[in-house]
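assembly run, all chains below
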Amino acid sequence: MTGQLGILESEIAGRLFRPIHYLGNKWRALSALETAVDELSPPPGAALDLFSGSGVVAARLGQKRPVIAADIQEYGRVLASALLMPAHLSDSKQHALLNQVAKASATRTGEFASLLEYEIAAFEQALASKGDRLAEILEQGSMMASGDSEIADGALRELLMSALEGMPKGADTVLTRYYGGIYFSYKQAADLDAIASVVRCLPPKVRDTALAALLSTASQIVSTVGNQFAQPIRPRSRDGRVKHESVGAVARTRQLDAVEAFRRWLTQYQDLPPSAHSHQVMRGDYRDVLDQTTATVSIIYADPPYTRDHYSRFYHVLETIAVGDEPDLSRVTIGSEARTSRGLYRAERHQSPFCIKTEVRQAFRDLVQGAAKHGVPLLISYSPYSNGSAARPQTRLMTIPDLESIVNEHFDHVEVRSMGRIAHSKLNAERLNIEVNPEAEVVIIGRF
Ligand SMILES: C[S@@+](CC[C@H](N)C(=O)[O-])C[C@H]1O[C@@H](n2cnc3c(N)ncnc32)[C@H](O)[C@@H]1O
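ok done. output:
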């Protein structure tokens, strides 16, 4: 049976902001989802959000009821923690934190002053429609990859190698050494490292909120299409010519001040209202979370991935920030040469069964069976997203009828509801700078 939950609406008026740019996030569907959840299980019964991602659904539900939020990615745990249980710093503590950040940022860049000068000149040139130098940085600018054989000899390589030599190894410099040049400017990456090093020393509860502000900052200032970390900008057209206009746009993004962006994000998290309910957040595989959750929950919400795109590839930089480690990077072999992957992905990344054609059916069986054991309604979102590439259309790995029949095996009633189209007018969308997803959102509901 197909019903209508009503029109999706703009959430701009709500108090909740969008913490990161996240594929498949349900930010624009929050009201409709909340209505569906409340109808299936009126508050204040607890909700379990098994794939919390950017944390926006958990945060919305958490305004009315206790929530257990889980995701396999550590950045998901951090965001859910900050949105559900924001730490509120006194003015003087916030001031002290920002002072420490400013100090750490000021001491960072001495080790590679010449590279910074080279970069500033690249910005000036790119803004004057001469993007060659910035294009080279975008393609070959990671210090970590500077030893690879396909990196051209020249001024940039020399600067990268000497910067790398002069910089201490370890988690406190990882963002500069790995991602500077490719995803951020060197200055931005060094500032992100400086902020991370201060934030990691904070007590756990404050740390999650400050770390979330850092994740939001990285997601805001990264210079890629769609603000993901799967595909670094390609600054040349197929014939090898530099795309001066888009490189100029990158130069502008790369001049954004990361420390100032962090300050603003921290304020936004601080302004979130304290929750009246007691929440839990965790990092974990949905099967373990379903098995190990002994608390009574009244409803389970599941928003698993629905395409081949692994979130661990699209958001690996956020994971490195959240985990605070110095990961091995994946390598690709071309001919007899092995080189660092262009996207500088973490070698160990979670491979979700929902993104693998041969595993997705069993993944859903495990989800539905595990959820049914809790004896409460299950609401699954399974909606397409577009990653902006017309050449590579994104399709669901499972059909809705297949999914319905799996839910039917374990629940007494199954219902598929279309959530309607996103209602805000084109004018509104343009003014608020949000994309309109023309494809319908769908939820599958299992009840006893
Ligand atoms: C469609 S997104 C969820 C979006 C979220 N509802 C929001 O509004 O931001 C799917 C999420 O599933 C997570 N995920 C993938 N495989 C998982 C697994 N085996 N266990 C738990 N979470 C998983 C991904 O990390 C991703 O955050």
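DSSP finds 18 helices and ten strands in the chain.

The radius of gyration is 23 Å.

not gonna interpret more than that til we talk
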